[in-house]
Structures are given as structure tokens and as C-alpha cells.
Write the C-alpha cells for this entry.
Amino acid sequence: MNCYSFMKITKMNKELLSMLLPKTQSLEKTTGSNDAITVEDINLILSYANLSREEYNFLLMKFVSADTYKSNFVSEIALRFYDIEDKKELLDFDMLNKLINLAVVECCEPKCVFCKGTGSIITLDNVSDCPHCIDGVFTFTEQVRCYLLSVKSFVKYKSKFEQIKQLIQDIEISALNKIGE
């Protein structure tokens, strides 16, 4: 094989390889082109990261926003807490699921739903700061948490909620460290 044919094959391989690789970092499906990173691409990348099931489901829940992964993640966290729950403080499974879902929303979906994360509410004649958030990040007060959990007082659940939230944050840090390596 001469040098010219080797260069031609190398160039052809680079062109073929470039056709296989995504050119943008969009998570939207495209039709007939290879411009977007798909869920399958993300799954492939995550499969090499040696993630636990909790970490895997967390990353897909947060970055792909699939309800399947959220329900899997919530179930795994609920089982973990239900197994180690102190018998005298045993929460019913429904309340434990509500606490976990609330912690997931606080950790993963902090964007204010009232101003859509802009930090400002725009009306026809006025632009004002959103009273529900700080710079587009929703402020979860005890009153808001009580309303979302359908309870009168959050005091009884506060320590368990903080444990759940800390666990979710630890899972996120561990998962991000693993994929960053």
C-alpha cells in the first residue's frame, strides 16, 4: 500500500467517524440526521461510569427528565429509608414518598413555576420581582412544604426530610464525580 492510498483511507475513516459523532449538545430527537445527543448516547456514556442504580436513575431523572427514572429513583430511596427507619418513628409509606418527591423537587427542579425561572413577573403595565423566588430559584418555605405535603405542621417531618435531602445531594455529588473522571 502506498502513502497516497493510506492517506485516502485515513481521510475516509475520519469522514465516516465524523458522521457518527454528534455535532451539537441538544437532547432533542432529530429526524434523519446525527446532530443531537440522544438518550441512548447518554445511556452509553453512563454505562462506562460504574454508577449505582440510584446514581444512574438520578442522573437520567435530572438531565433527561423522564418520569420512569424519577419513579425508579424515588422507589429506591423509599426502600432504603423504609429499611433503616427507626421503628418508633416509622412513617407510613405514602408520607415517605411525599417527602422524597418534595426533596427531589427541591434538589432537582428549583426553577420557579410562577416566573418560569426568570426572577421577574411581567404584566401588561409592569415588570416586578417575583415574590416566590430569588433570582428564579423557588423559595421553599415551611408554609409551602406544608401545603405540598398536605399537613398542618412540618416540624414532625423536618429531620427526616433533611436526611432525605442530604442523601439525594450525596448521590448527586457521587454520580457527578464518577462521570467526571
Notes: The mean pLDDT is 77. Helices lie at 3-20, 39-47, 53-63, 67-84, 93-108, 142-149, 158-180. The longest helix spans residues 158-180. The first strand starts at residue 120 and ends at 122.
